[in-house]
Amino acid sequence: MVKLVAIGNRFMKDDAIAIRAAEILEDHLKCQDIHVIIGETDFQSCFYLLDKDDFVFILDAFSSGAEPGSIHMFRLEDVMSQPSLFSMHHDLSMVELMKLYGSQFKGYLLGIEVFEIGFDQELSTVLRDKLPRICRVIECAIKKIISEEVTYAGKIPLREF
User: Fold this and answer.
1) Lowest mean pLDDT segment, chosen from 3-7, 50-54, 129-133
2) Which of 83, 127, 148, 159 can bridge 123 by disulfide, Cβ–Cβ 3.0-4.6 Å?
C-alpha cells in the first residue's frame, strides 16, 4: 500500500505546512489509492501504522535556506543510510525511529522549505500564498515517483492517473 505521512505542529506557523498540504491533497490522493496519515507531532503512532511492504512518503517541514515553498526530495533508502544531516524540524522523530528499528521502507522524504517558524496557528503569508503551487508540485512528484516505481519495480498497486 502507498501511504503519505504528514508531520508538523499546527501551532508553529510554517511547521504545519506538510499538514496543510496533505489535507488539501487528501481527496485526490485517496482516489489514487494513497492512504493519507495526518500525523502532526505524533510520529510514533504514524510509525506503527506502517507495514513493512508499504511505499511511504514522509511529508515534513524543511529548513535549508533555500527558496521558501521549494520541495526537497530524498529516497528513504538514502536518508536511512546517512547520519542525521538533514535540516528537518522533525528529523529526530520519524526517520530516526525507522533507523532505530532497522526499518527498510521504500519511499521518499518530501521536505517543504519553510519561511518562518514561530508561535501561531497560521502559515506565514509567504507559504500561504504559495500553498496551491506547493500542493501541485507535491501531487505531481508523487504521481511521477509512483509511475516510475510501477514501471521499474512493478510493486506498487496503482490506479490510472
Assistant:
1) 50-54
2) 127
